[in-house]
Amino acid sequence: MTYSNIIVTTENRITTIKINREKALNALNEKTIEELHDCVEQLSQSEDTKVVVITGVGKKSFIAGADITMFEGKSPITIRNIILRLQETLNKLEDLPIPVIASINGYCLGGGIELAMACDIRIASNTAIVGQPEIKLGLIPGAGGTQRLTRLVGSGRAKEMIFLGENIDAETAKSFGLVNRVVPAENLEEETLKLASRLAKGPSFALNMAKEAINRGPENSLLDAIRMEGELFALCFAHEDVKEGVNAFLNKRKPNFK
């Protein structure tokens, strides 16, 4: 697929996806959703990318939500199909076997925060604005907001954010546990790249196993989740990175993971 609403670049095994609808504050429309779906599908089969970064073009907005115009005049069935496609895309993003970083450079609302919550780590500009404002349109979040937000910040704060539909600043989002880091706006790209580079140098198989354990653990009882963790721990010994890591530790050098 040829992309027009997203820009995809890869350098040093870090793939950056930029939502490219600056005039619409990078709002998600059907074409953007389809391009994202295709890109994530390609990344799920790639062995060349070790880290993914998602951000928005320009300084004003990461993703300002879904483009409401794409719902105009459509039947509930058609709208259901659109939202299920977005859900599928975000689920695939969450299931990528590599770390995914959301670099939040401005407005991150509705579908934008839903996409960011499907990423593994969220780093935000100190000027970022976050929220689930759907209730103000007589709607509820539809692409995972009621579920992922609750898992990240707890039901009380999730209900407050969704019921009131009020936006919060980056520091408040950090205090809620919704974003991992807040950095000055002018340093966002640099700090995101530093984080991505550190992850890209890490043991990709172990990162995959850690992500699997963390993501799948809550679906199981504590005992079953711990058992799964043990199985994934043992599986790491089938990979050469363990030998390299141990050897580097014993010889007091930096590991060179494959």
SSE order and pairing:
Layout lengths: L5 E6 L2 E6 L10 H15 L6 E6 L4 E3 L12 H19 L5 E5 L2 E3 L1 H7 L3 E5 L3 E3 L13 H9 L1 H10 L3 E2 H7 L4 E3 L4 H13 L3 H13 L5 H15 L3 H11 L8
Helix pairs in contact: 1-2, 3-4, 4-5, 8-9
Molecular structure report:
This protein is of the alpha/beta class. The protein folds into two domains: 6-200, 2-enoyl-CoA Hydratase, Chain A, domain 1 (Alpha-Beta Complex), CATH 3.90.226; 204-250, Orthogonal Bundle (Lyase 2-enoyl-coa Hydratase, Chain  A, domain 2). The protein is 46% helix and 16% strand. Strand 1 and strand 2 (14-19) form a beta hairpin. The longest helix is centred in the first third of the chain and has 19 residues, at 76-94. The protein is globular, with a radius of gyration of 19 Å.
Number of strands: 10
The CATH superfamily of the largest domain is 2-enoyl-CoA Hydratase, Chain A, domain 1
**Major sheet: arrangement of strands:** 1-2-3-5-7-10
Mean pLDDT: 95
Question: Taking Cα atoms only, what radius of gyration do you get, to the nearest Å?
Answer: 19 Å
Order of helices and strands: EEHEEHEEHEEHHEHEHHHH
Largest sheet: 6 strands, mixed
Strand residue content: 15-25%
Return the CATH topology of the largest domain.
2-enoyl-CoA Hydratase, Chain A, domain 1
Structural class: alpha/beta
Tell me, what is the CATH class of the largest domain? Alpha Beta
